[in-house]
Write a structure and sequence with these properties.
Number of helices: 9
Shape: globular
Strand order of the largest sheet: 5-4-1-8-9-10-11-12-13
Order of helices and strands: EEEHEHEEEHEHEHEHHEEEHH
Radius of gyration: 19 Å
Helix content: 25-40%
CATH class: Alpha Beta
CATH topology: UDP-N-acetylmuramoyl-L-alanine:D-glutamate ligase
Amino acid sequence: MKRPLVIALNPSIDAEWRVEAVLWEEKNVVHSERCWAGGKGVNVARWLKHLGAAPRLLLPLGGAPGRELAAALRAEQLTPRILPLSEATRVNVIVTTHRQGQLRFNPIGPRLTAAEWRAVLAQAARLLPQTSVLVLSGSLPRGVPADAYARLIRLARRAGVPALLDCDGEPLARAVAARPLLVKPNQHELARWRGRPLNGERAVEAAAQALSAATQGWVFLSRGSGQSLLLNASQGVCLRAQPAKVKTVNTVGAGDALLAAVTWQIIQGTPPADWLHAGLAAGTASTQLPAGCLPGKLS
């Protein structure tokens, strides 16, 4: 049976420190700390499993943080396909304050050797014939070429596997020509791809239409509490929906929950309107939970 494949090239251990407030140039007392397996691709795989899929997760890991991350995933019954690295996996720090919101500190992560990157491509090629949908999500580690996602999407196309993409900057720009089925930028990422600020709804929709025309596929523009768009320029489809109004507890991983829900809908063959509404529902649900947690699982 074919299963979704999530490739997380730059996973992390995520550590959250809770403080009353951030005091600059002063000692900040951490009232509580917790750690979990993190990174955008890992979050997508976690939510896919929660929604009912049986995802495969391919990720390079190294050092003590890598061993800790693998153990955490096994505890969640997400057994990853691990490619060993000579350098250590990164540890992200999230500082959550009582009133000031969150600060996030993400190291750039390990540098992959040319041989380690070739191993990623080889393992992906072996897994793709048993894959229903490929999900590529998150930043690229050092040592990996900027067209890494483009190469993986082309591998998927040759295997007849649709690819979904969530990334930013040059990796996104390079991947567009490889024609992923769906790209999920937020408004900041879309503006970076467009190369100019997006002032007003017309500019936002025009940029999303341009990105869809470039990929010849779908664009899901997520906008936090604002109105999201799901459109396909070649099909003349432009759907809009507003997420439910809620009091946000946390924003880490909301976009990943959204992408997982869209992936699950695509696997089930539902119409695009269902992708939009299911994605927004999962993203909103994620904002009601502590980072790294799932509905019904708060530890």
